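The records we work with from here on pair a chain with its fold. Taken together, the C-alpha cells spell out the fold as the letters spell out the chain. To see the layout at work, look at the sequence and C-alpha cells printed below.
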Amino acid sequence: MEHQYQGRISGVDTNGRTLTELEKFILDKNPRILATQERYTNFSKIIQNYVQENIVFASLPCGIMRDLLKLDFTGVDNFRLVGIDIDYESLELAKKLAQEYGLSEKVEFHQEDAWKLPFKDEFTLLTSNGLNIYEPDDEKVTELYQQFFQALKPGGILVTSFLNPYSNIDPNSEWDMSQINSQDLLLSKIVFFDILDVKFTAFRSSSTTKLQLQTVGFDDIEFIWDNARIYPTVTAHKPK
C-alpha cells in the first residue's frame, strides 16, 4: 500500500534493492493492485477527516494497523485507537508498530472473531477492509455489517470496501474498462488466479452492498470509487 508513495518513485524496495520486472508489474500495472492502492488512499483521506478530540477509532481486521497509526493527530490529545483481529501474530506486529509511532498509550488490542464482537455503542469510527471479499455468503456479510452497526456509537461511521464483479462474472459489471489495460488485466489473471490460485470469490455490486448496509440500519451511504471502479470504498452512518 505504501509502495505508491515510495517504491514507485524510487524503483527500489525498502531495503534499497532494485525491483524486478515482475514486481514492478504487480505493484505498478496490475489493475486490481492499483485499485487496492487507490482504496487505501481513499480510506486514509476519509478517516483523517474525522480526527478530533475524544474519538474512538477501531480497525477490523487491523493487521499491523497502519491505517490508524499513520494518521496525523497533531493538536489532538484525547483519543483512543482499537485494533481488532483474530490473528495473534498480526496483533503483536501492530503493537510493535504502535511503539514505533509513539502511540502505545493510545492503543488497545483485542483478539476477536469479527462475527462475534463484544462491543456495543463503542466506536466513533470503524474501518474494515478485507473480510467481505472472502465471504461468498451474502447473509453472512449482512451479519458482519450488523456486528459493525452494534459496535458503533449512535452517529458513528463505518468505512469499508468491497470488490465489484468483472464482466465475465456479471454482465452488469460496474468496472470502467476504459481505465483498464486489457493486457495488464490478462497477465494479472494468469499470475494471481491461474498460478497463485488467489481465492477472491466474493464479488458484490454497489446496489447489493447498499441494501446489505440499509438492512442492518445504516443510512447516509456514500460510495467513493477508484478510477476503474474495481474496489470501491463505502461510508455509512449509524443514526443518532
Observations:
- The domain at 2-49+113-237 is CATH 3.40.50.150 (Rossmann fold).
- The chain has one domain: 2-49+113-237.
- Residues 31-48 form the longest helix (18 residues).
